[in-house]
Specification:
5 strands; 2 domains; Helix Hairpins; 6 helices; 61% helix; 5-stranded mixed sheet; single chain; Pyruvate Kinase, Chain: A, domain 1
């Protein structure tokens, strides 16, 4: 059995650790609320933009746009959105498990140091890596999107897919692989988008209004698909931030609770050891008195 001094030292160490995890829990909780609000607020705009693009393409008989034209996929381009820091439970591990299950030829672009480290460590094809702040402003997202679109246009990759931790609620974050480009079946992708964002499909209907395009359909189609892709990637990064802070808050709360339980167990162990030591001293005194 450890000595009382060793147990006291361990109790002090665990208490110090619990103070750190408690502080990290509070910080993650404050960031989590803001990130969740941003993610939920952006869903309506992302769906509206997808509906507009769906309505526009439905009104045009012949569409010739590289982002809307299906082609043979030789190399899949996958954007992996992870975290820069750890201590967020199994959030990153679940993403990396999805990557290991992909057997096709792929080229990866990463957001977050954890994904970049995993792709490099497993010797997969890493095209580029990016880091973004917790605020994740739209101007930080623009270079990522432009790099992905340029790689698609030059034939370096033949599709753009996003692997990210989709925010469901504070306790649940699902690793989700979403096909984004080419947008060959927008109506179906719109339905999947609404399902991912928990939109009631019964409330949505097709827009059958006649449209007039200004300045013309070509100008609209030149800008709208790229804007749609930028907004979708931005929304997924917002969802990832909400998932990250939620997972970290839950992990730190669990660590704090476990530390408290461990302190209780160690305190009980310390009291037993101290009581045993006192009993031993009494027995030694009684034995010495009896021998006299």
């Amino acid at each position: 059995m450890p000595s009382t001094k060793e147990i006291r030292t361990r109790i002090k160490s665990v208490k110090n650790t619990s103070q750190i995890t408690r502080a990290m829990q509070l910080v993650a909780a404050s960031k989590m609320k803001r990130a969740q609000d941003n993610a939920l607020a952006g869903r309506s705009y992302a769906i509206l933009l997808a509906e507009i693009l769906d309505s526009v393409t439905a009104q045009i008989k012949e569409i010739q746009h590289p982002l809307l034209t299906k082609r043979e996929v030789k190399t899949r381009g996958i954007l992996v959105i992870s975290t820069d820091k750890g201590l967020c439970g199994a959030l990153n591990a679940n993403l990396f498990k999805q990557i290991t299950e992909i057997k096709d030829t792929c080229a990866f672009v990463t957001v977050g140091k954890k994904a970049a480290q995993f792709i490099s460590r497993t010797r997969r094809n890493l095209l580029a890596e990016f880091s973004i702040s917790d605020d994740a402003s739209f101007k930080e997202i623009r270079p990522i999107v432009e790099m992905m679109l340029e790689s698609f246009a030059t034939g370096q990759i033949d599709s753009i897919e996003i692997l990210y931790p989709r925010y469901v609620n504070t306790l649940v974050q699902e690793p989700t692989l979403t096909h984004l480009v080419p947008i060959d079946c927008l109506h179906e992708e719109l339905q999947q988008l609404k399902e991912r964002m928990n939109v009631n499909l019964a409330d949505s209907s097709d827009d059958e209004r006649e449209m007039i395009f200004e300045p013309d359909t070509r100008a609209i189609l030149d800008e709208l698909p790229a804007l749609y892709i930028k907004q979708e990637i931005y929304q997924m990064i917002m969802e990832s931030k909400a998932s990250e802070h939620s997972a970290r808050m839950v992990a730190m709360k669990a660590a704090t609770d476990n530390a408290k339980n461990l302190v209780d167990d160690l305190t009980l162990q310390y009291n037993k050891a101290r009581q045993a030591a006192i009993t031993q001293e009494i027995l030694e005194i009684a034995a010495a008195t009896a021998s006299n």
